[in-house]
Amino acid sequence: MTIVQLEYLLAVDTFRHFSTAAENCFVTQPTLSMQLQKLEEELGVLLFDRSRVPVRPTEIGKEIIAQARVVVAESKKIQEIVQNQKQELSGVLRVGVIPTLAPYLIPLFITNFMEKYPQVQMVVQELLTNEIIEKLNHEHLDVGLLVTPLEDKTIRELPLFYEAFVAYVNKKHLFADQQTIDPAELDLEDLWVLNEGHCFRSQVLNICNRGGKAIGSNAGHLDYKSGSLETLKRIVESQHGLTLLPELSVLDMPEEKRKLVRLFQEPQPLREVSLVVHRSFLKKRLVEALKAEIMAAVPPEIRNRKKQQVVGVK
């Protein structure tokens, strides 16, 4: 039994297709299949039911795959021990970021990080929360940047800062004449929200349901489903109603558009932004360096804010 065989085993479990697994392991399919067959012969069990499409692990295969993940992760720690002896950070850091955070947070720190650690190759993907968690569990990502708490026992959450929600209102909306907004005044029939699947949507609905009116449909003839906060902003400007935005998204907004931003009354509803890693995560020094650069780049008024009214993700 070899580490390489176990890595092939995990690849087939991830992709449920021998050809795709081979491509991702940078070997031919016959090579991968032969190595897995040798592993099965050595163990004396069948690891996959090849009669099904896609292939699936057998019952004993599931147990062996779970243990293989532990063995492969532990073997990679040897490489990390060696890396930690070197003064210079290097390697690949794969980061998953949710769409309502990526365009506003990544530009704040990415340039400084890359200049400070030129030997690090950072690979960043915009993904939904459930996709990030899945990729962390399958070791396709090293770290996630998302909103917590998630109450998922497979991951470890490292809170970074607490970001306020703000309202972005049409200039003719009644909130345009108010300096601050009480969440209880929110009317979901007047609110533009993201598509289902975005944690930001769930948080917005949670804010409204704390005292706002019952869920309805946006008034008027336009029913627009969007996965982009920037699109929702344009709709508010050109149509009617309001939408909620994360605080970071309005920091560099032109003065003319900042006039449409309204804060919530204290205690402001907040979202907890965290680095999330697998329980047995590797690349600790890289993750620590990433955390330090993010915190240095976040504005002090956000970085120093205390945890108060954190809105649930679900």
UniProtKB/TrEMBL annotation:
The keyword Cell membrane does not apply. Pfam families: HTH_1, LysR_substrate. It comes from the Bacteria. GO terms for cellular component: protein-DNA complex. GO terms for molecular function: DNA binding; DNA-binding transcription factor activity. Residues 1-58 form the HTH lysR-type domain. Gene3D superfamilies: Periplasmic binding protein-like II (3.40.190.10), Winged helix-like DNA-binding domain superfamily/Winged helix DNA-binding domain (1.10.10.10). Keywords: Activator, DNA-binding, Transcription, Transcription regulation. The keyword DNA-binding applies. InterPro entries: LysR_HTH_N, LysR_subst-bd, WH-like_DNA-bd_sf, WH_DNA-bd_sf. This is LysR family transcriptional regulator. The lineage of its organism: Bacteria, Pseudomonadati, Bacteroidota, Cytophagia, Cytophagales.
